[in-house]
Amino acid sequence: MIRINLLPREDTPKTRSLALPSVTSFAPLVLVIIAVGGMTVMSIYQTQKIQSLEQMIADEEAESRRLAPEIAKIKRLDQQRQDLNQRLDVITNLDRDRYFRVHLLDELNRALPENLWVVRFENTAGDAYAIEGVTFSNFLVSDFLQNLADSPYYEGVNLEVAERGDIKDVEVVRFKLQAQGVRAPSGAAIGG
Fold first, then answer.
1. Alpha carbon 90 to its chain's center
2. Best label site of 96, 120, 147, 156, fewest CB within 10 Å?
3. Residues 118 and 131: beta-carbon distance below 8 Å
4. Would you say the pTM of this structure is higher than 0.85?
5. pLDDT tens digit string along 79-134?
6. Any residues with CB less than 8 A from the CB of 157 and at least 6 apart, and which?
7. First and final CA of the chain: distance in angstroms?
8. CATH of domain 112-181
9. Closest-CA residue to 181 (of 100, 110, 98)
């Protein structure tokens, strides 16, 4: 059958053709969608990472609270060990010095000439000692100083004062001297 169109041209139905827009008109929209999608993915990733780190911090804090009594016990034991080591050091030093003072007094006794008496023997600081005594003569004080200086247990023997005095109407010489004790003289055995 033949079709004849009798309608005027203005009234004729227009055929519609669909024309797709060009790619360049969609490019900004695609870029915006990609940017928004990328930011969304990054936001989700960062949120998960933050939650993971917060969970890790919470776990570590819980572990720290759980271990707190044990840490306190370790600190207490460490303090006790330090106190015990200090006590042992004191005991070791006392044991090491046990014979030292005995040897000092023995050498002091050997160095004493007849008619010279020591009235005071005092540890003033470290290995420094102050010695005071009385005798009848300056020559005896000189002999005593020489004997101490020759001893392997004393060094730096210095006379500080030698003065005349009276004890019950008897003239005497009072003297004071300083000497340094030597812990391990060469060739002398400490401890026996």
1. 20
2. 120
3. yes
4. no
5. 999 999 999 998 887 777 778 888 889 999 999 999 899 999 998 888 899 999 99
6. 145, 148, 149, 177, 178, 179
7. 146
8. 3.30.1360
9. 100
E strands, 28-137, in order: 116-125, 128-135
Exposed e or buried b per residue across 3-25, where buried means at least 16 C-beta atoms within 10 angstroms of its C-beta = eeeeeeeeeeeeeeeeeeeeeee
**Who contacts 174 (Cβ-Cβ below 8 Å, separation ≥6)?**
132, 133, 134, 161, 162, 163, 164, 165
Find the helix or strand (DSSP H, E) in which 161 lies.
strand 154-167
- Lowest mean pLDDT across 68-77, 140-149, 158-167, 183-192: 183-192
Q: Give kind and range of the element (H or E) at residue 160.
A: strand 154-167
Tell which residue, 141, 145, 130, has the closest CA to residue 164.
Answer: 141
Q: Please check whether residue 177 is in contact with residue 128, taking contact to mean a CB–CB distance below 8 angstroms.
A: no
Residue 17 per-residue DSSP state: -
Nearest to 181 by CA among 101, 118, 113, 119: 101
